[in-house]
Amino acid sequence: MSFRKGPAMARDVTLRQLEYLVAVADLGTLAAAAHATHVSTTGLAAALNELESTVGTPLTVRRRAKGVQLTPAGRVAVERARELLTRAERLVEAVDHEVGHMRGALRVGCFTTLTPWVFPQLLDHFARRHPDVELDVGEDSSPRLVAQLRAGRRDVVVLFASHLDGHKEFTSWEPETLDREGLVVRRLHEARPRVLLPRSHRLAGRESVRLGELDGEPGILLDVDPVREILTGVLERAGLMGNIAWSTPNANVVRNVVGRGLAWSILVGLGAGMRSPEGNELVALHIEDELPANGVVAVTLAGMAPGPKVLEALNVLTHREVLH
Q1: Which domain does 251 fall in, by range?
Q2: Bridge partners for 109 per DSSP
Q3: Are residues 18 and 92 in the same domain?
């Protein structure tokens, strides 16, 4: 009996190659992906070439000065690569958990007005308790955060329940709810919008206010999807939509305009005492009008249990007040 040596086996796909492919898909250029993954552009390109040689088909189309585009096969590969990278990370987390250690990246997405409360709490906790965890907190609009979660670029996102489709399902405030879109929604805290006023305002000494009492005074609206749509309904019912003189996607601009006494606004996630970025004192009053139920929620994807780092973050945010 004789044995003939068969054709050489193709080199195995590596997790590093998959990481580079996902980075290119997310960032759009070899240079940006190389910078994010701490490798040279030449090294990253070589790794992609090896990956494409292994799978036997082009995954990317690279054009000078036009960035990188995925082929149809590349889009499928990126989707599967995200799953494999996440599962590999879960394996490392499970071993770390067994020996009482926590490390690696924790990628949290946060709605813009909640970041000043969420980020300091997580940073303080992980810096003291788990210094080997690399905390990455990015802020954006709620729809974009959910898209990032689905794409595997965030491990968990923190936003308001009213920003989710079908949010009325969450008004009973069960600790955890699976929504129709395959998202696991966990309640952190209840939340209600408040009227933001300068300390010098005639109503600033009150604890609460009816929105109609602001009629005739200019307002400024935070223009971030879907906040504008939600607050527009509230303001229309109060007959105040015509009072909105300005809008901006920047919450700090809102606070500075209000701090200067130029307008009032409505924001969620405000403490009892605060100042604008320019240093002017602000007050936040409860709204007496009937408002839609709302709350701060943490959202993860169904079908994959959160790892120890995400569970730790959820515990921190649940047991420390985000809103005052």
Answers
A1: 194-287
A2: 138, 157
A3: yes
For 274-290, letters b (16+ CB in 10 Å) and e give bebeeebebbbbebeee
Please name the amino acid found at residue 11. R
The tokens describing 102, both together, are: 């926590």
pLDDT tens digits along 296-315: 889 998 877 788 889 899 99
**What is residue 117's predicted lDDT score, i.e. its pLDDT?**
83
* Nearest of 85, 120, 79, 128 to residue 105 by alpha carbon: 85
Which of residues 72, 101, 130 is at a domain's end?
101
Question: For 84-108, what is the mean pLDDT?
Answer: 79
Identify whether residues 76 and 90 lie together within a single domain. yes
Flag whether 258 is in a domain.
yes
- How many domains, in total, are found in the chain? 3
Say how far apart CA 226 and CA 146 lie, in whole Å.
Answer: 12
Residue 153, exposed/middle/buried by CB under 10 A (0-12, 13-18, 19+)? middle
Q: How far apart are CA 32 and CA 229, in angstroms?
A: 35
For residues 216, 221, 227, 229, the Cα torsion angle rounded to the nearest 10 degrees is 50
Q: What distance lies between CA 35 and its chain's CA centroid?
A: 22
Chain position carrying tokens 């998959």: 18
- Whether 73 and 119 map to the same domain: the answer is no
Is there a single domain that holds both residue 43 and residue 107? Answer: no
- Domain-embedded: residue 117: yes
C-alpha–C-alpha distance, residues 41 and 200, integer Å: 56
Residue 41's CATH number: 1.10.10.10
DSSP characters over 153-207: S-SEEEEEGGGSTTGGGGTT--SEEE-TTSEEEEEEEE---EEEEETTSTTTT-S
Do 76 and 82 touch, CB atoms closer than 8 A? no
Tell me the C-alpha distance between 300 and 297, whole Å. 10
